[in-house]
UniProtKB/TrEMBL annotation:
Keywords: Signal. Residues 1-24 form the signal peptide. The keyword Signal applies. The keyword Iron does not apply. Residues 50-185 form the Cytochrome P460 domain. This is Cytochrome P460 family protein. It comes from Paraburkholderia edwinii. Pfam families: Cytochrome_P460 (PF16694). The lineage of its organism: Bacteria, Pseudomonadati, Pseudomonadota, Betaproteobacteria, Burkholderiales. It comes from the Bacteria. InterPro entries: Cytochrome_P460 (IPR032033), Cytochrome_P460_sp (IPR038142).
Length: 192
């Protein structure tokens, strides 16, 4: 009976040691406490599209990507910023740590209307998410660098990115905007 009791205590102690060791190896802290990013980024730096961005975020603006052939647009991009981003940017010309930018990318449709040839958003292709990171929180995660988290999400799954490396999948489109913190801020009227 004493052997069973001692063995039980030993197993309980071993279980606690394993649990404490495992806990210590996993970052369970909220990486952006008190910011919109806290609901978009987990402890490993994995991101997802916020559920409420159309109602809780601020509209920054939209872009039309011209059609390769003929009149109109091929895509429409509509961009939202987490609450408080516009005021903070206007104050000092910088995106604050924890800023979340959500870009909806739509296939567009073009048609003749009484106002002329008009392109409008049609089918959602997906979302591009950027999260400002001034402190380099996730050096081991290949979606983080240049003071931002970068991720593309297909319209079929707002929780799982298809991006694997921001340098390969995202950065090249933003090189012309490197001087403005990788963001084409001149295209967003609320910032100016």
């Amino acid at each position: 009976m004493k052997i069973v009791g001692v063995l039980g205590v030993a197993l309980a102690a071993l279980s606690m040691t394993v649990a404490v060791t495992a806990y210590g190896q996993t970052d369970t802290r909220v990486p952006y406490k008190g910011t919109a990013a806290a609901t978009v980024v987990d402890g490993k730096g994995d991101m997802h599209v916020p559920d409420d961005y159309r109602t809780a975020y601020q509209l920054l603006g939209s872009w039309a990507v011209a059609a390769d052939n003929g009149p109109g647009s091929n895509q429409m991009h509509v961009v939202y910023a987490s609450p408080g981003t516009i005021a903070a940017y206007r104050k000092d010309g910088h995106f604050p740590d924890g800023t979340v930018l959500v870009k909806e990318v739509f296939k567009s449709t073009t048609q003749s209307m009484t106002t002329g040839t008009v392109s409008s958003a049609d089918t959602l292709s997906g979302w591009f998410i950027m999260v400002k990171d001034d402190s380099g929180r996730f050096p081991q995660n290949k979606l983080w660098g240049e003071n931002w988290g970068w991720a593309w999400f297909d319209a079929t799954d707002r929780r799982k990115t298809t991006s694997t490396d921001y340098k390969k999948d995202c950065l090249s489109c933003h090189v012309p905007a490197q001087g403005s913190d990788w963001i084409y801020s001149r295209g967003y009227p609320p910032l100016h």
